[in-house]
Each structure stands twice: as C-alpha cells, then as structure tokens.
Amino acid sequence: MRSFLLDIQEFQLLFYHPNKLKAKTLLGSKEYVKDGESGHIGAKIFTFRELAVATRNFRGDCLLGEGGFGRVYKGQLDSNQIVAIKQLDRNGLQGNREFLVEVLMLSLLHHPNLVNLTGYCADGDQRLLVYEYMPLGSLDDHLHDLTPGKKVLDWNMRMKIAAGAAKGLEYLHDRASPPVIYRDLKCSNILLGEGYHPKLSDFGLAKLGPVGDNTHVSTRVMGTYGYCAPEYAMTGQLTLKSDVYSFGVVLLEIITGRKAIENSKTGGEHNLVAWAKPLFRDRRKFSQMADPMLQGQYPERGLYQALAVAAMCVQEQPNMRPVIADVVTALSYLAAQKFDSDTQGVQNLRWTPATPPRTRRDADKRQKGGSYEPRW
Ligand SMILES: Nc1ncnc2c1ncn2[C@@H]1O[C@H](COP(=O)(O)OP(=O)(O)OP(=O)(O)O)[C@@H](O)[C@H]1O
Ligand SMILES: [Mg+2]
C-alpha cells in the first residue's frame, strides 16, 4: 500500500501542469471532486464491497469481456449509474503499474473521444477500474466475427468512427502537455457509445512523450502484435509516430474488415499491413481492399482517399508518416461526405475470401515490418 501511494505522488508531480491539466482528484477525499474549468466530475474511490454489490458479486452474466488486465463486468452503482468494472487479474502480468498509469492518465485527460473513468478501487490487494459504460462495446466487435443478425457498419459510420478515434489521439498528442503516447491503439480499445460515438480506452501502457529536444522515449516494447510500428518493435524507441502507425493499422481494419493479424493464415495474408502494401501500389486494386461486407456500398473516391491516409500512416519510416492533426483533417473531411447508395450507386462487387475468426492477442510478440514506397 505504501509503495502504491508513493507511486501516485510521483506520478502526480510528473503530471501536474497548472495551466493545462488538473491533478486534483487522486489522493483527495472520497467525495466527488468537481473540476471548476471543465465541469468534469473527478474519479471516485470505491470500496471493493460497493463494486461487488454493483456486479452482484461479479456474476458470470454481468461479464462483458476479458483482456490482458482482467475481466470486465457490467455493473449498476448505488446512484443507478451503469458502469463497466475492470478487475485486475491478480495473477496477471499487467499489474499495479498499469493500474496507476490508467488512473492518473484518465484523471487528467478529458476529451469527448476518450473514455471517462468514473472511479477506481485500491482496497487491500484488489485493483479495479470503473468506467462509463459504452453500450455498443468495442469497434472490434463490429468489424470482425459478427454474430448473425448484427448490423454491418456502413461506410459513413466507419468514417465517423475513424475521424472520432483520430480526434482522441490528436488530443493526446497535441493538446496534452507533455504529449501522451497512447501505445495501445487497436480496435478492441476503441469503445462505442450511443450513435457509435468512439472513445479511446485503456491507458495503462500510455507514456509521456519526449520533451525538449528529445525525439523519442526509450521503453520496453509493449503493445499488441500487428499494431506495433516496426521501429518501435525493433529498437524500443517510442515516438508519437508509433501511435500514427497503429492508427493506420486500425484504419486499414475499418476499410477492409480484415484483422491486423490473421492467425489462421500464413504468408501474404497473415499480417494486414504486409497484405496491403503491394495493393497500395496499384490504384486499380483499391476496390479489392474494401470490406466485402460493405457489398460495394462506398464512394470510390472516398475509398481511395481513406486508403491513401492509411498507406501514409503505415509507412516504414516514422518521419514519412503524417502528424495526427493532418489525419484528423483528412478523415473529418471524409466523414462529412455522406455516401448515399441510392444516388451514388454501388461499386462492382468482387469476391474476396472471408476472414476466419482470430484468436486473442499475444501482448509481447513483435511485428516485423515490410518496406513501402507510396506511389502518389
Ligand atoms: N467501458 C466499457 N463499456 C463497455 N464494455 C467495455 C468497456 N470496457 C471494456 N469493455 C468490454 O470488455 C472487453 C475487454 O476489454 P479489455 O480492455 O479488458 O480487453 P481488450 O481491449 O480486448 O484487450 P487489452 O487487455 O489488450 O486491452 C472489451 O472488448 C469490451 O467489449
Ligand atoms: Mg482494452
């Protein structure tokens, strides 16, 4: 417990920037703390008992999912607020440090495209995080392995989600001070609220970005196989451009409906970026890259432009990748161009083999990147 508090104080010192971010809520009273400027309600400290009651003792039918940190349950607080409660797996590898980083980051960073931390519990050796409940689950659930009857995301919705996720990342890179490198951008960490409003979640791996003249921070390679930028996987040198690469992979998944890593496939189709790079070189092949589930209902020009953004983001050389603000500009434009299949027609359908179910990530596997030279 002692080291937990010390860690929090250290982090609080690191993060306290009076003019930009407010670190007020972590060690204070057990009451809600209101941030005068933003009107944001600070994270509340819960007892383990309160959260056990909220989830009916972590009942199986309240389980929403499970990731590297532990299980996530749907719960109802005393106030009637519906929340998602993530319980740290005490045998898990990802532990106290990620818990602390998550609490601190989400207590300081507030944006419409970042998930809101309602509170947390550090009772004895229990570590739990309480988030706003995101009723539509993760983007992953809407792109891959759709259950029968589940609505396929249409093109307009895909662009809206991509633009919103990019805005969340832009806030971390350009508005937080010092900048925050998210480090774990992937479809399962983009959660969807009412109207498919996207929010980034899971900040346990986030890092403060380089300050001053430094161009990178050095760190142990963490993240998810298939989303890691090649230079980060190989050298551990982390920059804001590592996040831009991961964003490019997410955008490719959104456009193609394919997974970052297709475990059941070998060779050219195993890794999404490696599959996409030869196709990027030939505009005539772009239509082959559209998700077959879209059934040709996408704007041809919009597809080209979205693929061009994705291609730039996943370039081998970090300095060739765009800054996230430029990605936001491009995707906001694409999201504003509403596609209507009745008036704009349907593109030629081509048969593409369906993608089989993927298995859960292997957190520390590394990705080897291929080379890519853009041709436009
Ligand atoms: N705030 C939330 N609201 C609703 N569902 C959530 C929320 N947070 C998580 N979930 C659900 O729980 C699942 C597991 O989330 P979790 O973040 O633990 O794992 P993951 O993102 O799949 O993997 P990783 O541990 O690598 O981040 C998510 O896929 C999502 O369906
Ligand atoms: Mg997650």
UniProtKB/TrEMBL annotation:
Subcellular location: Cell membrane
Residues annotated to bind ATP: 86
Listed Pfam families: PK_Tyr_Ser-Thr (PF07714)
InterPro entries to which the protein is assigned, alphabetical: Kinase-like_dom_sf, Prot_kinase_dom, Protein_kinase_ATP_BS, Ser-Thr/Tyr_kinase_cat_dom, Ser/Thr_kinase_AS
Region (Disordered): 346-376
Signal peptide: none
UniProt keyword annotations, A-Z: ATP-binding, Cell membrane, Kinase, Lipoprotein, Membrane, Nucleotide-binding, Serine/threonine-protein kinase, Transferase
Stored CDD domains: STKc_IRAK (cd14066)
Domain Protein kinase: 58-334
Entry membrane topology: Lipid-anchor
Family statement: Belongs to the protein kinase superfamily.
Protein name: Protein kinase domain-containing protein
Organism of derivation: Solanum tuberosum
